[in-house]
Backbone:
């Protein structure tokens, strides 16, 4: 359930169109895709109903899906569990499927979302199942990435909105961290029936044509400094492969992967 809420709120910037969304071939892609470890809605009320075995620290592998070269490059940039605070686990890493649900304040999907080059999402949860992260990493032509971040800023025109499922969200702009070429942050809170209140911070960072959205939700008090630190780690990985030296993202990301 939380994964679906995450996805709906992120559509204003990325609006995932599924595998091979830009019509590129699978040539040069890697034959891996990850799937959720358990279908337990990832909500606090279902923690006691989870399978006896703990989710693995690395996501499961499904060999039938291939990534494009550009998607494969982004896999080298997305956060790994070892780069998160101790105790966090990676639940899934996927190429988002098409979804036209409205985003922040009910805004429609970013009009130029179809121009993105590649997109990857990775979901994580804390060991006690009370905190959740979704990172969306999208590559656009740089001018389109600039418009995408501005579109998010322009979309936050309300203090509260209700999604199509009836969930009421309270949102407000937050102080943006000094990250990447530009950054934007939004405070988000809502109530999950029979679970309680969740508080979150969504941090959008653009580095060249790359946009990373680190969405953090937790039951109870939010540690904003921790969220900014995670976003800073994500930004550092983006900066290492930013297309500012004449190379392609896939070449530079592959180089980063070999160095790590």
Residues:
């Amino acid at each position: 359930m939380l994964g679906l809420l995450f996805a709906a709120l992120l559509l204003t910037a990325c609006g995932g169109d599924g595998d091979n969304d830009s019509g590129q071939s699978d040539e040069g892609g890697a034959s891996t895709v990850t799937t959720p470890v358990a279908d337990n809605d990832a909500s606090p009320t279902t923690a006691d109903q989870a399978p006896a075995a703990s989710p693995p620290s690395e996501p499961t592998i499904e060999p039938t899906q291939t990534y494009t070269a550009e998607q494969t490059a982004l896999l080298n940039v997305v956060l790994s569990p070892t780069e998160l605070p101790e105790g966090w686990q990676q639940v899934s890493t996927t190429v988002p499927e098409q979804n036209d649900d409205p985003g922040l304040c009910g805004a429609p999907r970013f009009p130029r979302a179809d121009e993105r080059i590649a997109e990857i999402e990775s979901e994580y949860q804390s060991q006690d199942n009370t905190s959740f992260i979704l990172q969306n990493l999208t590559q656009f032509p740089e001018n389109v990435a600039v418009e995408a971040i501005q579109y998010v800023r322009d979309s936050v025109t309300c203090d509260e909105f209700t999604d199509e499922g009836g969930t009421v969200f309270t949102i407000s702009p937050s102080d943006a961290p000094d990250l990447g070429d530009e950054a934007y942050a939004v405070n988000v809170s809502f109530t999950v029936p029979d679970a309680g209140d969740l508080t979150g911070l969504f941090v959008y960072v653009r580095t060249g044509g790359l946009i990373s959205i680190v969405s953090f939700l937790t039951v109870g008090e939010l540690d904003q400094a921790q969220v900014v630190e995670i976003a800073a780690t994500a930004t550092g990985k983006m900066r290492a492969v930013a297309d500012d030296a004449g190379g392609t993202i896939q070449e530079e990301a592959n180089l980063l992967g070999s160095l790590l």
